[in-house]
Write a structure and sequence with these properties.
The chain is an alpha/beta fold. It is built from 15 helices and twelve strands. It has a seven-stranded mixed sheet, with helices on both faces. Helix 7 links the parallel strand 4 and strand 5. Helix 3 packs parallel to helix 10 and helix 11 packs parallel to helix 15. The structure holds pyridoxal-5'-phosphate. Pyridoxal-5'-phosphate binds next to helix 4 and helix 5.
């Protein structure tokens, strides 16, 4: 794809929009439908003879601007110009995409350490519709290959870095393997954002984000996005599925996303640097078993992260030697960091996955993938790094 501007510049610029009043920033087109000069004009739009808007569940000008920007950001380095569709949440990005690409009876192949909601969606909802899910460790590609050969796999879903263990999967290797078996690939790129990792350029078919997290960045809206090649045979079905299942986003959330993207580059840089700083200072701490952060040399997936990410992200997790007791007491002693079940906002937030995001995930899956009861997840914000470190250190000191 031609690259006129750097990603950081694309973040700041508003894409052009039909805009008679020359509004400097993106207008919110808060309307359910659009009207026409004549019935002939309406028919031209309905039948696709002329480009135009019909009804905001199908598409909306405010959404289109943000979709174009996200597609542009995610498409840097890809050999084609991708398209994007904004959805009502990250979960609806995943469910819409899967509902569109899966054929009757096909199975889903994925990893065990996914966002808890995704695991639940696959195990409960998609299972109900006849799509079973197989969970394997994606660092063993031979096993993945033999699973594809012996099962009717309709889609492979990966998440890297994964929530909450930060384990990484070799994106290019999975994409190549899937391609040789004509399997559709999906990646949840929420943790990395398009600025740290470009899966389309590495051969993945579809990227989804919970834009609720870093892309919005301010914790004031819920939305998601599906990004892929509009020439892909499934793309028309994806568009239709969003329209018919009604999983489209709305102009207000799209506007908030657009506002957030403007500072994405600055936020990510500061948040990543703060996370690396915390990780380095917590590594080897007496009360901590293990610090999960892809930037640490001794992290098991460091070399994979180094190969495919431009920075190591702003999420980390720490595993307490004293297990759940230590984890909970640490959280209660924090003064600056807040307890909140989200991530990617500008302020630092902590979460105890075992009793929140992963509460409904099978304990066997949690145990197998290192989602222990002593694990605390930290979404690192843009605060002063020493204030953050001091808060974490004083809480560690007081923790049991
Ligand atoms: C939050 C999250 C989701 C779900 O997104 P919502 O916007 O809450 O629906 C999916 N994947 C990852 C990695 C997430 O962090």
């Amino acid at each position: 794809m031609k690259r006129k501007y750097h990603q950081h510049t694309i973040c700041v610029q508003d894409a052009t929009i039909d805009n008679n009043f020359k509004s400097h920033t993106l207008p919110i087109y808060s309307t359910s439908s659009f009207d026409y000069n004549s019935i002939e004009d309406a028919i031209d739009v309905f039948t696709g003879q002329r480009e135009g808007y019909v009804y905001s569940r199908y598409s909306n000008p405010t959404l289109r601007v943000v979709e174009k920007k996200l597609a542009h950001l995610e498409g840097i380095g890809a050999s084609y110009e991708p398209e994007a569709l904004l959805t009502s949440s990250g979960m609806s990005a995943i469910s819409t995409l899967l509902a569109a690409v899966l054929k009757p009876g096909q199975k889903i192949l994925t990893q065990g350490n996914l966002y808890g909601g995704t695991t639940e969606l696959l195990k409960k909802q998609f299972h109900k519709f006849g799509h079973d899910t197989i969970m394997l460790n994606f660092n063993n590609l031979d096993k993945i290959a033999s699973s594809i050969q012996s099962n009717n796999i309709g889609a492979i879903i990966i998440e890297t870095p994964a929530n909450p263990t930060l384990n990484c999967v070799d994106i290019a290797a999975v994409a190549q393997l899937a391609r040789t078996h004509q399997c559709t690939t999906i990646i949840d790129n929420t943790f990395a954002t398009p600025l740290l990792q470009q899966p389309l350029a590495l051969g993945i078919d579809f990227v989804i984000h919970s834009t609720t997290k870093y892309i919005n960045g301010h914790g004031n809206g819920i939305a998601g996005v599906i990004i892929g090649n509009p020439e892909h045979p499934s793309w028309p079905m994806i568009w239709d599925t969003r329209k018919l299942m009604g999983t489209t986003s709305n102009p207000w959330d799209a506007w908030l996303i657009n506002n957030g993207i403007k500072t994405l580059a600055l936020r990510m840089e500061k948040q990543c640097n703060n996370a690396f700083f915390l990780a380095k200072n917590l590594d080897q701490h007496l009360k901590i078993n293990k610090v999960n952060y892809p930037g640490l040399q001794d992290f098991e997936d460091h070399s994979i992260a180094k190969k495919q990410m431009s920075h190591y992200g702003a999420m980390l997790s720490i595993d307490f030697k004293s297990g759940q007791k230590g984890a909970l007491s640490f959280i209660n002693h924090l003064e600056l960091c807040t307890i909140a079940p989200t991530l990617g906002d500008v302020d630092t937030m902590v979460l105890h996955p075992a009793t929140s995001s992963h509460l409904k995930v099978d304990p066997k899956i949690c145990e197998e993938y290192g989602i222990t009861s002593g694990l605390v997840r930290i979404s690192v914000g843009i605060e002063n790094e020493n204030d953050l470190l001091n808060d974490v250190m004083q809480a560690l000191e007081k923790s049991s």
